[in-house]
Specification:
The structure is a single chain. With 203 residues, the protein is an alpha+beta fold. The chain contains seven helices and four strands, in the order βαβββαααααα. The longest helix is centred in the middle third of the chain and has 30 residues. It binds glutathione.
């Protein structure tokens, strides 16, 4: 398999952590791709022009990190990272959705800062993205305090870990840990997993 890859993308990190946890990482060749380079050929694999995209051994191209993670989860014989049924499935998928929303809002803030000239930036929209992140972090802190993140590693907790890592990379000045002790303690432990340590983004 080949993964169109960027070392700083939180979505790519989610896929790679999933692959490591599933024991599949060695089967995946990483093809570093700068989607912002005008000369990039990413659209040949993903018409949306985004990473991650996975080219399977059969030559099928999968895009969007949830699809890729679901596919990887179907390839291994260990405990499912996305439970097949029951309350655990909805817990994991909902946690995944919340953490993906943090990634979406954080990436939107980064793109707004980087791609748009300062006089064209829409402050109210940036503030709206930050509020989404803050509210989602508060929810995650409550869930961590209730033990909802204590399950064995799964797609939900992987996505939370990668979202928090991305906030540390791009918005450390926002100090997401402040006032969220349960989430901080959970992340301190989760980020020690070999899969997380092996995928720390370059600063
Ligand atoms: N929903 C997608 C989001 C992927 C995404 O937005 N990737 C960013 C990099 S962090 C990208 O490639 N952006 C390029 C663009 O939007 O044109 C996923 O989960 O894979």
């Amino acid at each position: 398999m080949k993964l169109r890859y960027s070392p700083t993308s939180p979505y790519v990190r989610k896929v790679v952590v999933t692959a490591i946890e599933a024991g599949l990482d060695e089967r995946i060749e990483r093809i570093e791709t700068d989607v912002w380079n005008p000369a990039t050929d990413i659209a040949e694999d993903n018409p949306l022009g985004k990473v991650p995209a996975l080219v399977t051994d059969e030559g099928r191209v999968l895009c969007d990190s949830p699809t890729i993670c679901d596919y990887l989860d179907s390839l291994h014989g260990g405990p499912r990272l996305i439970p097949a049924e029951g309350p655990a499935r909805w817990q994991v998928l909902n946690l995944h959705a919340l953490a993906s929303g943090i990634m979406d809002a954080a990436v939107a803030r980064v793109v707004e800062h980087r791609a748009r000239p300062e006089h064209l930036r829409f402050g109210g929209w940036l503030e709206r993205q930050k509020l989404k992140i803050d509210r989602a972090l508060d929810s995650l802190d409550r869930q961590a305090a209730e033990g909802a993140l204590d399950d064995p590693v799964n797609l939900g907790t992987i996505t939370v870990g990668c979202a928090l890592g991305y906030l540390d990379l791009r918005f450390s000045e926002d100090a997401w840990r402040e006032g969220r002790p349960a989430l901080e303690a959970w992340y301190d432990a989760f980020s020690q997993r070999p899969s997380m340590q092996a995928t720390v983004p370059p600063t």
